[in-house]
């Protein structure tokens, strides 16, 4: 024992942390799977792979991977459109693309994606997730599209009020959410048990003690649920639509994982994330999940922050959490059949609310209104259209905003009635704004001297410089005093070089 502790000096801390992460991950793995429309055991398979495969690889040493609420809507749509067997093909392809991107050192570029697009993506997912799980909490069938789920809620409330079974089911779901919200207000010792696990256990006990007739998790057995994709599933690759879904899986899973890694790095003082290696670790995990026909994985901030808070020091904690999930799935699968579905719906409703950045929208609107609009537009697009196209709309808006800012230019004319006219340019002078610049300058009186101040420019491209030189030459050609130009600082510094 002493030899083991000498070789692994942080084993005790990692062992304790792994148990906490296991207890946090267990209900989430099952809940995400059920909400995604796949067997509950497949969520456990993804959690196991996240621990035993991704967990041993280099990248981010303390963040934990598994099935994520952020992909629930996309997975559900994919299963509905292409079928469960094709899910493995989609996840496998996404994993291979992630491996390739990591090998090409593209991981760091995901940090260049606008935070507003990512937050808008998560907000849109959260809205659709909440709406869909409210139906599940009442034991009702949810509509297929995000808009229909939201618009159908008033009718669902009427249906639930007229059914005693639906009201009972909804009460269990609401009770689960209440436990999750109130659990954080309990004394610290009570919070040793994760809130999600406590909520599920309490809902299960209440359901069994009072003999409530509400739906519970359907159990197929671990081996019975694993269905590697066959030739028919790979035949779906002939459908061009599947490639958009693969791209969406890749983009969203990668962005969520690497943004999570950046957040986890701020929680501890250990080694920093190696982004390209982390992307490859996620790719390897998704490739294995795809080969097993399981759910896609991402790094999950809830489990990762629980891992850090529990005192984890090395990657051993996340590997051991995968071992505990495997033992549970192998030895206690029948325990899943006792879990009421409304309790899992309550957990995901709570998770959906946490995906929506309520506190960030106000300050963002006051300081960066354009970014706030992108966030809202991305979320609305995901609800109104679908996940993939909604993210593309957000990215397009972000690029358009950047292009507009890159070409933003302010021209101020100061004419005191006597002496030279002063023209001050500030911002970014690019060919996109060239017509506006020339129209304003050419409207100045030809018989007056002009002082053109370019010191406020952050950027002056070649097309603008050439056009300004030509204008200055034309303005001075009628005998007017030559235009006096004050160059931007970078230009003046460059000109001074020998």
TrEMBL record:
Keyword field: Membrane, Transmembrane, Transmembrane helix
Ranges annotated as spanning the membrane: 15-35, 42-62, 82-104, 116-140, 160-183, 195-217, 237-259, 323-353, 373-400
One Pfam family it belongs to: Sulfate_transp
Xref: InterPro entries: SLC26A/SulP_dom, SLC26A/SulP_fam
Region described as Disordered: 476-498
Gene Ontology CC annotation, any one: membrane
Coarse class of the protein's main subcellular location: membrane
Cellular localization per UniProt: Membrane
One GO term of the biological process aspect: transmembrane transport
SLC26A/SulP transporter domain span: 11-378
Membrane topology: Multi-pass membrane protein
Protein name: Sulfate transporter
Lineage of the species this protein comes from: Bacteria, Bacillati, Actinomycetota, Actinomycetes, Kitasatosporales
